[in-house]
Amino acid sequence: MRRYSAAAVMSTILWSSLGMAQDRLNVVGEIDLRWVDATGPPSYLYGGLGALRFDSEHDGLRLGYAMLASQFRATDILSAHVVAYAYDDHDRNFVDLTEAYLEARPYPTQSIRWSARAGAFFMPVSLENRGPGWTDVYTITPSALNTWLGEEFRTIGTQFEARWLGASHGYVGDVALVAAIYGWNEPAGTLLADRGFALTDRPSTLFGGLGMPPMTFYHQVDHNPGYYGGLTWRHHDILEIRALHYDNRANPSALTSTAAAWRTRFSTVGARLEPTDAWTFLVQYIDGETAVGPNEYYDDQFKMTYRTAFALTSFEWRRERFTARFDDFQTNQVSGFYGPPADEVGHAWTFGWMHELGAGWHLAAEWIRVTSRFPQRIEYDESSGLIESQVQLAIRYRFHWGV
Amino acid sequence: MDQRDLAFVPQVLVVAVGTSVDFPNNDAVSHQVYSFSAAKRFQLPLYKGALHPPVTFDKAGLVVLGCNIHDQMVGYIYVTDAPFYGKTDSQGVLHLASGPGDFLLTFWSPFIADPPATLTRTVQVGSGEGTSTQIQLTRDLRAKPEPRPRRADWEY
Asked: Taking Cα atoms as reference points, which of B76, B57, B61 lies closest to residue B10?
């Protein structure tokens, strides 16, 4: 009898905490299946130098991804965020994490609200990837700029933010300063030097790799912490501007048995304008350099500069969204090893259409055409100049769940 | 003061000192409503629906509302000790049923950029008849009256 009443009390406590309607746990899941028709040479995900996710040998019916993004608000100011993805691009782990972090966000007591994150998360740069799980809300494939940031960068460390909330001063908008220190990002730059820029919706996972053989990015090589500092300005829900300077402060001579440290630095600035409910205009630019060596394998230092920009326009009308984007990118080898230089020049056009079917179902279609010249392709018996194209038609199902 | 589509509805509320206001959350997502305005500091921890009891506004002044999860949500409660008060309609018209006397009319909106000194009027109301007064704004409104909801409840 006593045991029974204890159980009754327990279930009452559980029930009442569930019945308080707080939704401490929020989960968004999405599965993306797609039909692909690609013309390019082998994609870098399958051991080649192709700049797109799929190629003429790897198209047809494909798993885009299965994603589970969860937020758990443990207390009023502390939340835990975990995002898991399943991919089928010869990944080392079929299911892996892309983000896992804790966030503390106290209530503001003045016009400044402080918050902090610790764990593994995306730095606040992309203006395209604003959906759950860092998904692109405008089309299937993000720009060359944000593809690269998703591939080689994850903040594994701590980020602090001070956000000035304009509302109490009669201003609709806010300004945030962010600063982070992190480790485990010394290999960043390896993939860009090897392959050049790409346009894929394949961010790297924390414990897996990209390509064949898998290239991994999250290693502690020299124990020098990296940093970034950035600014976000949101004006009237119409304009958002983001700028950030990143420096991983890696020692380019440092090596471990699994990875080399690349000194990678860049500055980026972007703006998103939403003058009406229907229209979005977005531009982003990045400019930086990366260097590796000399080390015990190479007497020289390899050094490369890079820059890429894109302009995107998107129109949303009822259940439809139409997007057009132009990407321009280039890399320049400044010094380095023998062989063809890592000098790439290219541009890409992307046209996307998204349609909301209702009840969580969406259709997405996209056509990408990349025109580029990359001398390293000669080593793969391909001509250095190349046009690659890819058509994708995806069906997506998304669900939300909360308790 | 409802919350719908990641916005406070109505966006501006005017109440007398001592009024209690409910904050029902009609969104599918949870909110954390707060104010750090001098006229009323309060916090409503994470909730959906009508979880919290009403909040009493016992001091005159402007209370700016926010949500600690959704920074784009901004609402205003104007707490007044004036004997007659109200909110203009969509045409900018407000009828006040006062008795006769001399009154000081003060107008306020979060979106008006005109200097506050130009937004007051002294009004004389005679017995048995009404009077009207008009304020013509000289500057454009400061912000769009309806902030639109973001596409998603996730921040990157």
From this structure: B76
Instruction: Enter the pTM of the model.
Output: 0.90
Measured in angstroms, the CA of A402 and the nearest CA of chain B are apart by 9
C-beta separation of A143 from A128 below 8 A = yes
Cβ <8 Å between B32 and A76: yes
Taking 3-state DSSP, the helix, strand and coil percentages for chain B, each rounded to the nearest 5, stand at: 5, 40, 60
Amino acid at B140: D
Angle at A353 between CA A350 and CA A356, to 5 degrees: 150
**Cα angle value B40/B44/B46 (rounded, 5°):** 155
Nearest 10 degrees: Cα torsion B106, B93, B101, B115: 20
- Kindly indicate whether the ipTM for this predicted assembly is greater than 0.90, answering yes or no: no
* Closest by Cβ to A21, choosing from B37, B47, B152: B47
What 3-state DSSP class applies to A6? Answer: helix
Question: Parallel, antiparallel, or unpaired for β B55-57 and A279-292?
Answer: unpaired
Chain B partners within 8 Å of A77 (Cβ): 68
Phi, psi of B72 (to 5 degrees): -75, -10
Q: pLDDT for B47-100, tens place per residue?
A: 999 989 999 999 999 999 999 998 888 899 999 999 999 999 988 899 998 888
Asked whether the beta carbons of residue B156 and residue A108 sit closer than 8 angstroms, the reply is no
Residue A16 pLDDT greater than 90, yes or no:
no
A236 contacts in chain B (CB < 8 Å) = 143-144, 147
Instruction: Tell me how far apart the alpha carbons of residues B11 and A353 are, in angstroms, rounded to a whole number.
Output: 34
Structure tokens at A240: 């958002």
